Amino acid sequence: MLILLPPSEGKAVQGDGPSLDLGRLSSPALNPVRELLVDRLVELCADEETAARTLKLPASQRHYVQANRALRNAPTLAAWELYNGVLYERLGLGDLPDGEQVLIASPLWGLLRPSDRVPPYRMPMSAKLPGTETLAKLWRPAVAEVLGARDELIVDLRSGAYVQVWGPKDRGVSVRVFKEDADGKRSVVTHMAKATRGEVARSLLAGGIRPVSAADVADFLAGQGWKVELSEPATRSKPWLLDIVSA
């Protein structure tokens, strides 16, 4: 089983390890794109106003311009320490034994293992850096090369912007989270969905299971008390859909 996670907007602001070394990151096939994006992002952030506008940074996040400018020399920290949004709070990767079953999608790094060390940064998936294509288009071939070589079941907990880069087709299961009101109407509540995804990932990793099918994942989560609904792929180019429904 491989679990794909999104990054989080919430990040630690300071690392304490050595500076960035792309050669030590996992998935070396991604390094040419990583190198290009680091160069472009550092160049962009030489001008604070242009960078803030391109990266859609509010005044409270202008400090990320300086962080981006210092990417190559700033202290790093492990990805599981860097990302600290609600999904990662509920997941608690630091005390799980099977973190290497996880890959984290990233606009800047493509994919990261939890143990990969990178510096704090800010770049949304929607950003369009000068002299580059859209991030989804830029990452698509390299990420497809890395993930297309995997043969295990993929549990996809990423949000839509990252699914546009690469999808697991029918050997994967895409997890969606809905809130259901008393009338049976369903909606997506972003904070709750992120928290639930973190809890789902933690259950799968802590449970020590080795699912080989979407049905195995659905059965396990149902046994943990979640209300789940599993739908077959519409075509072989689409993943299974696993809906988690809460009141």
TrEMBL record:
InterPro entries: YaaA. One of its GO terms (cellular component) is cytosol. It comes from the Bacteria. Pfam families: H2O2_YaaD. One of its GO terms (biological process) is response to hydroperoxide. This is Peroxide stress protein YaaA. It comes from Glycomyces albidus. The lineage of its organism: Bacteria, Bacillati, Actinomycetota, Actinomycetes, Glycomycetales. The gene is yaaA.
